[in-house]
Amino acid sequence: MRSRPWRLVVAGAALAALTVACGEVNDERNASSQPQGASLRVTIGTQEFPEARVLGELWRQALAVNGYTVDLRKGVGPAEDLDQALKDGDVDGYVAYTGTVLSIVAGEEVSGLDPDQTYDRAQEFYAGQDMVMSGMTPFQNKDAIATTTAFAEENGLATIADLAPLEEVVLGARPEFEDLELGLAGLQEVYGLDNVTFSPVELGEQYAALDRGEADAVDAFTTDPQLGSGDYALLEDPELLFGSQNVAMVVSRDKLDSIDADAFMGVVDAVNAELTEDAMVQMNAEVTGGRTDEVVAREFLRGAGLDEPLRGES
């Protein structure tokens, strides 16, 4: 999946006051690479789950070696809380999932939209709020249907539609999934899965339910750390029932105008371009396995060559 170059979409500019963050804060600075004449303190917020925290750390550390001081506020809340914090000036930017921006924040439909369409609509929404979106990541983290690899191979499963001919499918998912349009109700309508028996499973217990044989398929997320084991298979969603969920940074236009926009977004986009699904599955596995966000992010950036200041284009 290609990562789109960022672009400013709202006319006008104003210098923003420096934002002083409260909450969990991490600071680094490399003054030798500081862009000239810029106010370089930025506050970034994240949701409270491992992947979002790692993403915040990746941006923080990469920006730090390029001369920015980043106050990283981890666990601000869900998307609607982060959006409000951005509008209130409590944060200057946040970790945004494009489909969530479109569905939860903007209140628009996401089913059937591919990554580019979702990104464009989310970007258009935030343009009207004097906000700017970075380029999006190659990876997505969205709902998906997973089975064991053995079950998929035994039944010739590649897509969600391949479940329809089976005599019965026990689907394990969080209880509310049963009635959601982006859940069982949608699966039945879009893929004709009238052969499904629903089995409520607490979030986080889906893979255990597969292992115990209590479910044939489960609702999963595409960057779940368990997927790195090779024991589970994700079924393709060709109708895009679950929409698209790439990641981008949303930044206040006022703040961006005050911190050397080209340099700042260049760093963010350089990080985003490296974030494949396999990379995120691996980092999520490391964090849930007990390693810290900071260490996992640092090692990834080192391996990607992003632990040093970016060189300007000649």
Automatic annotation (TrEMBL):
<dbReference type="GO" id="GO:0022857">
    <property type="term" value="F:transmembrane transporter activity"/>
</dbReference>
<dbReference type="GO" id="GO:0043190">
    <property type="term" value="C:ATP-binding cassette (ABC) transporter complex"/>
</dbReference>
<keyword id="KW-0732">Signal</keyword>
<dbReference type="Pfam" id="PF04069">
    <property type="entry name" value="OpuAC"/>
</dbReference>
<feature type="domain" description="ABC-type glycine betaine transport system substrate-binding">
    <location>
        <begin position="42"/>
        <end position="302"/>
    </location>
</feature>
<dbReference type="InterPro" id="IPR007210">
    <property type="entry name" value="ABC_Gly_betaine_transp_sub-bd"/>
</dbReference>
<protein>
    <recommendedName>
        <fullName>ABC-type glycine betaine transport system substrate-binding domain-containing protein</fullName>
    </recommendedName>
</protein>
<feature type="signal peptide">
    <location>
        <begin position="1"/>
        <end position="23"/>
    </location>
</feature>
